[in-house]
Amino acid sequence: MGKLKLTVFLTIIVLVLAACSNSSNGNGKTETSGQENSSNKASTVDIKDSHGTVKVPVNPKNVIVLDSRAFETLADWKIKLVAAPKDVMPADSTYVKDASVKNIGNHREPNLEVIAAANPEVVIIGQRFANHYEAIKKLVPNAAVIDLNFDVSEKAEKPGENLINGFKNATITLGQIFDKNEEAKKLVADFDKSIKDAKAAYNGTDTVMAVEVSGGNIGFVAPNFGRAWGPMYEIFGWKPALEIKNATSGHKGDEISVEAIAKSNPDWILVLDRDAAVSSTTDAVPAKDVINKSPALQKVTAVSKGQIVYAPNDTYTNESIQTFIEIFNNLAKTLAK
């Protein structure tokens, strides 16, 4: 073989070897190693939760979510789940209707065997399930377990600030995990605007009372930390019509008589209808009926002027950022009248 032919032959061999080292993975994309995939996006992300920093895979396949504040967001983003606590979720949730999503039950007696059997890559805990964090970590030691809970109870120093920052951080975190960063930023922007508009709508002098209706009974939602409405007193600077001693953030509110409500004569009443979210239509007593049919409340300013704001029916089981945007937008529209 002449020198020229040998040189050409060696050149071809080098090119073939180079091509092999950059071979396709079968779908037209070049294989890479480490923490980057073929599109140069990170395959993992470091997430900070209430327990520390956790390395979480981006776009995980086997995902379990136990956070009532996250379901609507993930459903809107078309994120697939393998299991969820269907007993404490809105009946019309796409996850509840999907038979392929296994039911973990509720937070009081969760079926932890479902979690173990699912062999999840990621488990997202929050709100009702926060107390099960350690048990779940032991149950699925190979999974990335993150806790997105934020404290708006009577133990929190600034429940209003916690609610705002908690929703923002959780939404951005979900965006990072599921590669929905732009969608997450849009939600946070809408959230900020709804808060700004609701603040501007309050006149600073009207008195406000928040209540929770369950089983035909009216419970008192304490300013600052009561269920759903409480943190809004801090956020919007509302003037409470009534404050009681030893108030809690209990799921049915604190006991209060209609006479006490009437005596405090609030300018506005804010209502969370618990039955609308957790009971069948045959069991539920609509909150509107409870308030409108109470003789003692008919002369109250809020009732006589129709200054009553109802949270969305599914709020008790769907305290998502979307729900709060809806509530804040409704407050901005209603309080401004």
Question: Describe it for me?
Answer:
The protein has 337 residues and is α/β, with parallel strands linked by helices. The protein has 13 helices and 13 strands. The chain has helices spanning 3-21, 71-76, 94-97, 112-118, 133-139, 159-177, 181-201, 230-236, 258-264, 275-278, 287-292, 301-304, 321-335; strands at 44-49, 52-57, 63-66, 83-84, 102-103, 122-125, 144-147, 207-214, 217-221, 239-240, 254-255, 268-273, 308-310. The strands form 4 sheets. Strands 8, 9, 10, 11, 12 and 13 form a 6-stranded mixed beta sheet that branches. The protein has a 3-stranded parallel beta sheet with strand order 3-6-7, with helices on one face. The N and C termini lie far apart (95 Å).
Q: Tell me the fraction of residues in β-strands, as a range.
A: 15-25%
Which parts are unreliable, with pLDDT below 50 for 5 consecutive residues or more? 3-39
Count of individual helical segments: 13
Largest sheet: 6 strands, mixed
Shape: globular
What's the SSE pattern? HEEEHEHEHEHEHHEEHEEHEHHHEH
Helix content: 25-40%
Structural class, from secondary structure content? alpha/beta
Tally of DSSP β-strands? 13
Mean pLDDT: 86
Compute the gyration radius: what is it? Answer: 26 Å
Termini Cα gap = 95 Å
